[in-house]
Amino acid sequence: MRILWKRDCGNMDPISDPLARRTFLEKTFEVLLHAFGHQAWWPADTPLEVVVGAVLTQNTAWHNVEKAIARLKQEEMLTLARLAHTSEETLADCIRSSGFFRQKARRLKAFVHHIVERWQGSLERFLAQPLPRLRNELLGLPGIGAETADSIILYAAHQPSFVVDRYTHRFLMRHGYAEMTYRYEPIRRLFMDTLPADVALFQEYHALIVTLGKRYCKTKAQCLGCPLETLLPSGGQNYDPYSESAGSY
Ligand code: SF4
User: What pLDDT band is residue 13 in, cutting at 50, 70 and 90?
Assistant: First the structure.
């Protein structure tokens, strides 16, 4: 699909041009922050709540997660000790609103079991590991993929690992900075290799992209009036590779 960009923009290849990448990512952040303001993410009181939210938000909308978290709080279950001693069935019932609740209960129990067994119940020490080790360990746990792992690292451990999601891919692809096929790691590297490793910057940037994706850069792009409209590649506001492909999400 890079062909689309080349067709529209001559020989420029923004994906492999470091200066173009940096200028685009810096400008995008500046414009989005100005348009949407500070997003105050992640909405959680404790690192454990971030972990639980990161697992529960898999394949569901955040408002469903909020209901599940509220129920867990109501049952006073948002502590490692309570989660460790609660049966998988009881936990599944509490998080029912988040969908795939049995699978998610199993994943949460596996996570808690790992912290209890391997880290003597210290989530704090687990999260304080150097980033590469922490990421590898998270990725080795059942049901923890790259997006969940990076969410935990960035918002619970406060370490600089950029979180990528479909919203991130969609807007980058439409602006010529990602391939048509969604591949997590190249997009993560795009941010990590271009921007300073700044936790607050990464936290804010990801949150702003989610807001962008929900308000404007939807499955069908609403470029007119979008804050990033002026940053579209030549081809104009109606440039939309999705309209030229069978796929959408
Ligand atoms: S201008 Fe269009 S393609 Fe770019 S982020 Fe906004 S909606 Fe998406």
Answer: low
Ligand 1 center from residue 86 Cα (angstroms): 45
Could you state, in order of their start, the residue ranges of all structural domains in the chain? 18-39+163-237, 47-155
Q: What pTM, to 2 d.p., does this model score?
A: 0.90
> CA torsion 18→19→23→24, rounded to 10°?
-50
Task: Give 17's pLDDT tier (boundaries 50, 70, 90).
Answer: confident
Q: What is the dihedral of CA 63, 65, 68, 70, to 10 degrees?
A: -60
Residues whose beta carbon lies within 6 Å of some atom of ligand 1:
171, 174-175, 212, 216-217, 221-223, 226, 228-229, 232
CATH numeric code, 47-155: 1.10.340.30
Distance between Cα 214 and ligand 1 center (Å): 11
First to last CA, the chain: 16
pLDDT of residue 238 exceeding 70, the answer is no
18-39+163-237: which CATH topology? Answer: Endonuclease Iii, domain 2 (1.10.1670)
